[in-house]
Design a protein that fits this description.
single chain, alpha/beta, Rossmann fold, 3 domains, 7-stranded parallel sheet, 6-stranded parallel sheet, 18 helices, 15 strands, disordered C terminus
């Protein structure tokens, strides 16, 4: 049996976690997707053969994939003292009052899910049936953004964070490869159509004329911009690349699969297409074939939900985001499919639905990277990379800025000063009362 050797960042997290668990029954690790959190779990099981571990996770894909990767990291080692159970299974057992395996350590992977109403009941049931067990958690983010910003590190682990690393820190330190981020737009006609409908509702002739002129400027700008096929071919040079396309729903998945030759034909005429969805019983077969495909063809896997977290496929060259999301968690999970510790490639990210813009924009991520860089420098650390090494290619900057300008003109946002003036006016009319 081969001993598991951890990367330095995971060794530090592991040592801190073990130290914290000596004084407390609860502790967690917060690290970006792709940094190898499961290897820390496996190391704990390997170093404590006399203890039973119960791993709670989101899906079977996760565990199967992680165990396959573990066999490459530590050949011959299979953690016999580690059981796996999905959060859904734990929930079902709680509802029926079924027996829960006895364990010494409960490990909650992607522990932000423990705040979900029904899954949370399953977790609580597991904990109640193992009152003396240590509880350990791993997640890329402890925050539940869609649930009033609840911090599950505070709720589940009383703030006991043994180790914490932000995505931007991982990029600067070379823990994760810094991607090349390409912004484009796959559905310009829809965007134009929505703006046109809004313009047609304008009754004031002067404003209407102004908006129509701006609309025509935007339409010409989009016509002059390169299409998705040229943008992908410009940046994706490896003919036998492996690509994952994240789709929002079944209808769009079918649409995008039909567009594969239009989108990827300039890279390689031979395209092997696969799909996996939570509702597809043959999805796992397609997923396995995609992973094993070593042909000279371009390999494209279309998926819905299945690979958002905890599943890593070796050799992914690019991901294509066509699933709009306002959730930073889902955004980072999708991004993480192209990022894996120990790689020296520059993965490609094609954002075709403006996820980057809708989640704080380019400036937001670059500002966080600047802060992380300054903090490390003040602490005497010298990161491998600098914020300027993060390359964002905005292929539709001009039309995107035109579209934002037009939207703002159609639906002007009220400034703070304007809101204050409005309230003061109302108060003046009501004897100082609002």
């Amino acid at each position: 049996m081969e001993e598991i050797e951890l990367y330095p960042h995971n060794q530090k997290a592991y040592d801190n976690l073990c130290a914290m668990l000596r004084d407390s029954n609860r502790a967690c690790v917060v690290q970006p997707t792709g940094t190898g959190k499961f290897v820390i779990i496996a190391k704990m099981a390997q170093d404590n053969p006399g203890k039973d571990f119960l791993l709670l996770g989101t899906n079977d894909y996760m565990y199967i994939d992680q165990m396959a990767n573990l066999s490459d990291i530590a050949p011959g080692f299979t953690p016999k003292n580690l059981q796996f159970m999905t959060y859904a299974t734990a929930m079902a057992k709680a509802r029926c009052g079924d027996e829960i395996p006895r364990c010494d350590v409960i490990v909650a992977d992607e522990f932000h899910h423990c705040g979900a109403p029904e899954w949370g009941k399953g977790v609580q049931y597991v904990v109640e049936n193992n009152p003396d067990a240590k509880i350990v958690g791993f997640s890329a983010t402890p925050i539940r953004y869609s649930d009033k910003g609840r911090n599950m590190a505070d709720e589940m682990f009383v703030g006991n964070i043994a180790s914490s690393m932000e995505l931007e820190e991982a990029w600067l330190d070379g823990v994760l490869p810094m991607p090349k981020y390409v912004i484009a737009l796959y559905d310009a006609p829809k965007e134009l159509g929505e703006l046109k409908v809004s313009i047609e509702k304008v009754r004031e002739k002067k404003k209407y004329s102004k908006f129509v002129k701006k609309y025509e400027e935007l339409r010409r700008s989009l016509q002059d911009a390169d299409g998705i096929d040229r943008i992908i071919a410009k940046h994706l040079r490896k003919r036998d690349s492996k690509v994952i396309v994240f789709c929002p729903n079944q209808k769009k998945l079918q649409e995008f699969m039909l567009l594969r030759r239009e989108w990827f034909g300039r890279v390689n005429k031979e395209i092997h297409a696969y799909k996996t969805t939570s509702a597809d019983p043959y999805g796992s077969r397609d997923f396995q074939e995609f992973k094993e495909d070593s042909s000279s063809a371009l390999k494209v896997l279309y998926c819905i939900n299945q690979l958002n977290e905890a599943v890593h496929v070796k050799g992914i060259d690019a991901i294509v985001m066509v699933r709009p999301t306002k959730s930073p968690v889902i955004f980072q999970q999708q991004l993480g499919r192209a990022l894996t510790s120990g790689g020296n490639r520059t993965p490609l990210v094609f954002d075709l639905c403006n996820n980057f813009g809708s989640l704080g924009g380019i400036a937001g991520m670059q500002e966080r990277m600047e802060r992380a860089y300054e903090k490390k420098s003040e602490q005497g650390e010298k990161p491998i990379y600098e914020p300027k090494d993060f390359h964002v290619i905005d292929e539709i900057k001009d039309p995107r800025e035109l579209a934002e300008e037009l939207r703002e003109a159609l639906n002007p946002s009220t400034t703070i000063d304007e809101k204050i003036s409005f309230l003061e006016e109302i108060a003046a009319q009501n004897g100082g009362q609002l």
